[in-house]
Amino acid sequence: MLQPNPILLGPEYTWRLLRALAEIRCRGKTRSKTLLGEPIFTNPVYTSYKNQLLIAPKHRYPHITIACPTFNAFYDREIAPIYKEAQKFLGDCGLDTHHAQFTLKDVVSLQKVANECVVIIKGEYSREIVGTLYFDSAKALKEKEGLNSAVLKLLDLDQYPQLSHLIQESIWVSGHPKARLVLLCENQHYLLQWQKAFTQQVELRHAGGRNVEKLAHAPDPGATFCYFGDWDYAGLTIYRDVYAIHLLNHNRRTRLLTPPQSAPRKQVGVAGHGSRWPSDLWEKLSHPEIPLEELFSDEQRKLIDELYQKDKWIEEESVLFNDLLDYNGLLNS
After folding, report:
1. Which domain of life does the protein's organism represent (predicted)?
2. Which residues lie below 8 Å from residue 147, measured CB to CB, with a gap of 6+?
């Protein structure tokens, strides 16, 4: 993770400026217009190293900026390692490094987005939420089109979820109005199969990805509550949180449905999947107020151990709706 000197996180340290400074270090000079017209003795780019001038316009050639004697030491110590790492990150992610309008601070934030893309996608974060959490302002990505495009590319999305504010605060429901059981789904896949759910007298609810706190205020139809989502680390922690919210707010126990033994196992970290199993898995899955034995059955703990040891996961969408009910003894014949 990039950890630059705080002075390099100022708004004046744009990517174009960093490229110009790299050229000065390599060639001793640059014709980059990025450095022209700046107040030399007030801009931190020029005076941030022992209060000595770092670069200056060439005598009689003001369109050329040259290095001062103190520049190389400052550059090698403070800028070169960060610039090389940032350049590699942008290149590896396929982001434009030639015309980029980013600041170095933006690049640091983009790296955080790349490291947490699974959390962002599963949580269905809106553009405003991503802006607030990673770029210090809900309007940051609206005001910087290039930066917004870079975030979407890192997330492998064409656009953010529509009506994102509404999605975050609402609970999507489909299926039978007088259900015998309520199936909470991590993703929206099953909600589109409302006809199958209606036939089985099941109400489907979208649990909201990572945003499960809203379930504390959801209505209780008096039916059995079940949960099913991805069987990876992120999906199982979401289930744990759902269980805790139901138990601590409504004294209601939620049953985790187990995928059939025939459910395909997928390799962790392949094809955009980024939820990796931690080494201290059971400690991370535990809850301070709920025993593990209550959260997961013996069969489920055995399956989780198998997935962990083989570095595999099971995707929610890979399990057919009726097969899921049948395997868990919930299918109406």
Report:
1. Bacteria
2. 101, 102, 106, 110, 135, 140, 141
| pTM for this entry | 0.51
Encoding tokens for residue 127? 């553009």
Strand 55-58, strand 61-67: pairing: antiparallel
CA neighbours closer than 13 Å in the CB half-sphere of residue 204: 23
Give 70-96 pLDDT, tens digit per residue.
888 888 988 899 889 888 998 888 887
Which pLDDT value is given to residue 166? 45
Q: Is 3.40.50 the CATH number for 170-327?
A: yes
Residue-range domain boundaries for the chain: 6-95, 116-168, 170-327
Contacts of 193 (CB under 8 A, 6+ apart): 204, 321
Instruction: Kindly list the distances between the CA atom of residue 149 and the CA atoms of 103, 107, 144, 207, 287, in Å, as whole numbers in the listed order.
Output: 15, 13, 9, 28, 38
Nearest by Cα to 57 from 74, 34, 40, 73: 40
Q: Is the pLDDT score of 191 beyond 90?
A: no
Of 158, 257, 282, 263, residue with least CA distance to 207: 257
| Tokens standing for residue 254 | 């939620």
User: Which residue do the tokens 């009910």 mark?
Assistant: 325
- Bridge partners (DSSP) of residue 205 are 173, 184
